[in-house]
């Protein structure tokens, strides 16, 4: 009896997978982006990694593969439309949940999430990366080995009607050109310079880092991280500053302060904020004593 119920559920899922999307949804978003945005409204236990991995599949397939990764303690399913009674018979709550979630349009009250949903980290990063690719398609495609033709890049950069109200965002500042006539303010993910794996690991863990595993080239400088949502470039210092003798501390500060000031100006020239992450409160205090205008934080993630 249970196996027949499961077969019925799978047949129902297959039917949903072949259902045509509503007319308003066709031609507006890529299926992967639509899946990521839809999944962002649900609570996930593992940071949304399964969703990012399966996002290119049809939504019913994604849900079937990632259903167990949902935070089931914070979500309730109700068959308000009466479409899941047959498909879930004998399959229990899991059948109802799968059936409700794979529906092309979820009925009001069918999915109830307890508490505020914070977008899962992996999904947020993927959406941020998508936004960057939309802003700078040619450069972002090159960094990932995907060639985008100049004509396609130009078409994607054509001005769009200005949004109003809550959709408004501050305009991107003018982009200066380098000697090769390339827009040097366009953030381009590039490989870590290498040679210091512990440093790179700390950089990858910058909260909400849009490109973990990469440096970001802006205005001729490789920065350790970029938080695209906050338009902030980061540098990470992993010195064991507390263990240095006073003379060495002075030498380190003499070297770091001018570089940080220069990096800050490069970031600001392209409309980005700039932050520095250090390992200890003593290192932070010493930097701010030299230049109180720097924005320095102590890493609690590394």
TrEMBL record:
Keywords: Membrane, Signal, Transmembrane, Transmembrane helix. Residues 1-20 form the signal peptide. The chain crosses the membrane at residues 106-123. PROSITE patterns: PROKAR_LIPOPROTEIN. The keyword Transmembrane helix applies. Residues 141-181 are annotated as: Disordered. It holds the Pfam family DUF6310. The keyword Transmembrane helix applies. InterPro entries: DUF6310. Residues 178-302 form the DUF6310 domain. This is DUF6310 domain-containing protein. It comes from Corallococcus terminator.
């Amino acid at each position: 009896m249970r196996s027949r119920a499961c077969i019925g559920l799978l047949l129902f899922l297959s039917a949903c997978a072949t259902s045509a999307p509503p007319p308003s949804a066709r031609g507006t978003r890529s299926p992967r982006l639509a899946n990521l945005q839809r999944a962002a409204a649900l609570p996930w236990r593992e940071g949304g990694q399964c969703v990012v991995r399966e996002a290119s599949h049809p939504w019913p397939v994604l849900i079937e593969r990632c259903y167990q990764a949902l935070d089931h303690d914070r979500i309730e399913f109700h068959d308000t439309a009466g479409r899941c009674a047959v498909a879930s018979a004998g399959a229990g709550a899991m059948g109802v949940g799968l059936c409700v979630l794979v529906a092309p349009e979820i009925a009001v009250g069918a999915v109830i999430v307890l508490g505020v949903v914070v977008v899962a980290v992996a999904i947020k990063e993927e959406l941020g990366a998508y936004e960057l690719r939309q802003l700078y398609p040619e450069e972002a495609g090159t960094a990932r080995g995907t060639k985008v033709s100049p004509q396609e890049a130009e078409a994607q950069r054509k001005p769009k009607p200005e949004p109003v109200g809550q959709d408004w965002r501050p305009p991107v500042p003018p982009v200066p050109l380098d000697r090769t006539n390339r827009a040097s303010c366009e953030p381009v993910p590039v490989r870590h310079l290498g040679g210091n794996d512990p440093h790179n690991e700390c950089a990858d863990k910058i909260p909400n880092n849009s490109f973990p595993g990469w440096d970001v080239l802006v205005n001729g400088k490789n920065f350790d991280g970029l938080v695209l949502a906050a338009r902030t470039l980061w540098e990470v210092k992993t010195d064991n500053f507390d263990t240095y003798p006073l003379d060495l501390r002075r030498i380190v500060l003499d070297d770091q302060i001018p570089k940080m000031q220069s990096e800050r100006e490069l970031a600001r020239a392209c409309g980005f904020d700039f932050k520095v992450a250090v390992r200890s409160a003593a290192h932070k205090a010493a930097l701010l004593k030299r230049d109180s205008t720097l924005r320095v934080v102590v890493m609690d993630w590394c």
